[in-house]
Amino acid sequence: SSGINAEYGEEEEDAAQLKFPAAFKNADALLVSEVHMLLKVRQEQHEMDDDDTDLSKVFENTLKYTAKFSFYQNRETIKAVREMLQTKNLHKFEAASLANLCPDNYEEAKALIPSLEDKFDDEELNELLEDLKTFKDLTQ
Question: pTM of the predicted model, to two decimals?
Fold first, then answer.
């Protein structure tokens, strides 16, 4: 495959090579912890609205999922994680993926996020992962 979708004249998506559809060009990649906070706010609003209707099953399941995989429990920690990652010359997808997946070591990180292969040497990547682990441990 040439990487071009002939029918539409667009490049094909490939997250491993950081190729995303044009619609995502200006989009931010959210951390699971950020999505969880947004959903909690929505749930609280719903409870205060005196609305007798239930939130959708999809909403409830997504809230449960984000609660389970939310590594950072408060805004200050999320902000610190984002600020630390912004200093590392990462694509926003790579930064969110690292923060969301919290790989244990450089091998796992590079297997899960192939675009990291040429960005960091192994020791440098392990240091970054240790920093992320510290943030994660702060909120557990």
Answer: 0.82
